[in-house]
Design a protein that fits this description.
single chain, 73 residues, mainly beta
Length: 73
């Protein structure tokens, strides 16, 4: 698994990898990304997660996250 954190301008703010992760079908791994890098200077940033098996890309997802709490009106 690889997790990259990007600024809105596309600059890589953090890049982390983990290997030898074993999950059953439909199992979820929580807390594996962006916890180390929560850029205070950026109100919004992107996290890209890539899951590979034996070098083959199985899944890729990109999420946007905010450092500001949601304001519901």
């Amino acid at each position: 698994m690889e997790a990259k954190v990007y600024s809105l301008a596309g600059a890589v703010l953090d890049d982390q990898s983990a290997s030898n992760i074993t999950l059953a079908s439909q199992q979820v791994l929580i807390g594996c990304s962006h916890r180390r890098c929560r850029p205070a200077a950026h109100q919004v940033f992107f996290v890209e997660l890539q899951l590979r098996q034996n070098g083959t890309l199985l899944d890729r997802n990109v999420y946007w996250l905010s450092t500001q709490p949601d304001a519901v009106n």
